[in-house]
Amino acid sequence: MKQLLLAASILGLLACSPQQEAQANANTTPESGASFNQSYLQQMGFTVESAQESSIPGVFEVITDQGLIYVADDGKKLIGGRIYDITGGEPVNLSENVIRKMRQDDIAAVADETITYKADNEKYVVTVFTDPTCGYCRQLHNNLESYLERGITIRYLAWPRSGLQGSAYQQLKTIWCSADQKAALDAAKNDKRLPAASCDDPIDEHFALGNKFGVRGTPSMILPSGEMIPGLVDARRLAAQLEQD
């Protein structure tokens, strides 16, 4: 039997001013109708996207701009950690299932913002957060044909490793604003000069989305199941994993 350590920490009971208590719209999320006081999360900097009751009575499962969290006691207590069902032979990470669904929904919402290299015999679509200055990202891109040959379409989203500044950030903005995005991405990953281009680009939004998903480096692959694989996985191993999924 595997030993499982479940860590859950209460981060604290937060005071709320009478003015905040009076905010009627702080109590109900529009998507689910779940009712709890959101003002405590809001003053911590969270934006609530959806919420519903979890499998634990009195605990809400909340999707925020910073990912999945749990709250209890009418939103007064924030719970850190993950929920597992331990009634079977092996523990089941219920939180991971929620996170995967979140990623699937969010990826679908930005599908038209990706730079896509489509496999002729497409079997799977894998979304990759990329940075043109990342060596492993370049290795993946230089071997792109090996993924396409196995029926794996690669869709790129931007995630500048140095944040919203520096050369990678500027390159990504230029790439996504280029008339030929693929040619610009190919050029950037081979240290070729990019022609000037500017537009209302989605780079900041892609970066925020990656942070929400838990991206900490590039490449980070999002599989059709919503599972995230940090780092480079070669085409053969990736195809094998996709077939198992």
UniProtKB/TrEMBL annotation:
CDD domains: DsbA_DsbC_DsbG. Coiled coil: none annotated. It holds the Pfam family Thioredoxin_2. Residues 1-22 form the signal peptide. One of its GO terms (molecular function) is isomerase activity. InterPro entries: DiS-bond_Isoase_DsbC/G, DiS-bond_isomerase_DsbC/G_N, DiS-bond_isomerase_DsbC/G_N_sf, Thiol:disulfide_interchange, Thioredoxin-like_fold, Thioredoxin-like_sf, Thioredoxin_CS. Keywords: Disulfide bond, Isomerase, Periplasm, Redox-active center, Signal. Residues 40-96 form the Disulphide bond isomerase DsbC/G N-terminal domain. Residues 119-242 form the Thioredoxin-like fold domain. It is found in: Periplasm. One of its GO terms (cellular component) is periplasmic space. It comes from the Bacteria. Belongs to the thioredoxin family. DsbC subfamily. Required for disulfide bond formation in some periplasmic proteins. Acts by transferring its disulfide bond to other proteins and is reduced in the process. This is Thiol:disulfide interchange protein. It comes from Pseudidiomarina aquimaris.
